[in-house]
Specification:
By secondary structure, the chain is of the alpha/beta class. It contains ten helices and 22 strands. The chain starts with 6 loop residues before the first strand and ends in a 15-residue tail after the last helix.
């Protein structure tokens, strides 16, 4: 049975937030027969449930005509309570913030849907009193020449301190449609504002680009993101950014530009910086698809699976890279996401790149990246000086002293 999940976390009212999520959690505290609970779930999450968190209160809601149990963090399954007047089941529990929590629903002992990861966001992922807010544009659409008439939507966010007439630092994000809104999964705008207020980021423009569609209506995401070529970098440089610059003036030096994404968007971000390090020198890759999705040897097309070896054998680029992945990431016909990300990390380490690799336990998705965003953005932009236009990136001495990443089998007998 298909289920719909929305990961949302709000901090206590001391941080000045008010939201329908707070009202939902308050109603859930009254128990599964609370008046209006079903309607609040439908309005705030979806008619089929979801996951919401307020402080340390985590609310899990599953949809099934039969009783549901839930296992959180691989602990024994716990019965969920039936919500009056619905086929919904709930569990309200207190858990730690600052970590991700895995969960799995079961019906009659069999999994209901895929495993999920709930995010226990830290305070910098939420708006705080007195912190100035940025401005996000309406959706814009571009028709590409490079991709033969493909249409792609994009949004432009300007942080506090950005003057349209003064060149600003830039960060480009793939799958940008998922980053819009204060309570989007990664909380990009709020994290930017909080870190900028703490002087951990410069004023910057974020460009969030959605995957395009061909004139025939075909999804272009994998063709754009998973292909190792200069086509997508040229799409950015020749078509998207000139449109953005009709509104905001952007810094032209790669030192002042970063690019990020998740999954196929993560390999896409690395590909752009690898091919154009003079235009983008900072990379944010989460659950990157360094796998063979668009590998077409018969057409002489490379896929993301080649990058661990390109990094080892091709000339070193002057880039800084934050990577993250989880041990429960994908394993399919295109490759092994955990193994390829570990291989990428070891390749970057071997060539003494300025990189950081966060390897958790989450499945494929943005849970780890969302939790880490305040830390990862601060790390990626650390020591940024707007008076400069270049910097030689060097591996941190503490990383240089550490060993290569090694794999241990934890889920079965290795013999």
């Amino acid at each position: 049975m298909k289920r719909f999940v929305l990961f949302l976390l709000l901090l206590p009212a001391a941080f000045g937030q008010t939201s329908a999520l707070e009202e939902l959690i308050a109603t859930a505290r009254q128990g599964p027969s609370a008046a209006g609970l079903k309607d609040r779930i439908a309005k705030t999450l979806s008619p089929r449930g979801g996951t919401a968190v307020w402080g340390q209160d985590y609310l899990f809601v599953a949809d099934s005509p039969s009783p549901v149990t839930i296992s959180v963090d691989q602990q024994p399954a716990t019965p969920m309570a039936p919500i009056e007047g619905a086929t919904l089941w709930m569990l309200l529990t207190k858990m730690r913030t600052g970590v991700t929590h895995s969960y799995q629903y079961y019906v009659a002992g069999k999994p209901l849907g895929a495993r999920g990861d709930a995010v226990g966001y830290n305070s910098d992922s939420y708006s705080k009193p007195g912190v100035p807010r940025g401005k996000v544009s309406e959706k814009r659409t571009i028709v590409s020449r490079i991709y033969d008439g493909m249409k792609a939507d994009y949004w432009v966010y300007a942080s506090p301190g950005v003057d349209p007439a003064v060149p600003a630092a830039l960060m480009v994000w793939q799958d940008g449609q998922g980053l819009i809104g204060e309570f989007s999964r990664m909380r990009l705008f709020t994290v930017t504002e909080n870190l900028l207020y703490q002087k951990l980021l410069p004023p910057m423009v974020h460009v969030m680009i959605a995957p395009g569609q061909s004139p025939e209506g075909h999804a272009m995401r994998s063709v754009e993101y998973d292909t190792v070529s200069d086509r997508y970098p040229r799409f950015l440089m020749e078509e998207v950014l000139p449109e953005v610059e009709k509104t905001y003036t952007l810094r032209q030096d790669g030192y002042s530009r970063a690019i990020g994404g998740e999954s196929s968007g993560g390999i896409c971000a690395f590909n752009v910086a690898w091919l154009m390090p003079d235009k983008f020198s900072r990379v944010h890759s989460a659950v990157g698809s360094f796998t063979s999705i668009q590998w077409r040897p018969q057409e002489k097309l490379e896929g993301g699976n080649v990058y661990p070896f390109k990094v080892r054998k091709e000339p070193k680029r002057n880039i800084r890279v934050w990577m993250s992945d989880g041990s429960d990431d994908l394993e399919n016909e295109h490759g092994s996401w955990p193994m390829q990300n570990i291989q990428m990390a070891n390749s970057l380490k071997r060539q003494e790149y300025d990189f950081h690799f966060r390897f958790g336990t989450a499945a494929h998705g943005g849970a780890q990246a969302s939790l880490d965003l305040p830390e990862s953005l601060a790390w990626l932009w650390r020591d940024y000086d707007p008076a400069k236009t270049s910097q030689e990136f060097h591996m941190d001495p503490t990383e240089k002293e550490k060993p290569f990443f090694r794999v241990t089998i934890t889920n079965r007998d290795s013999w």
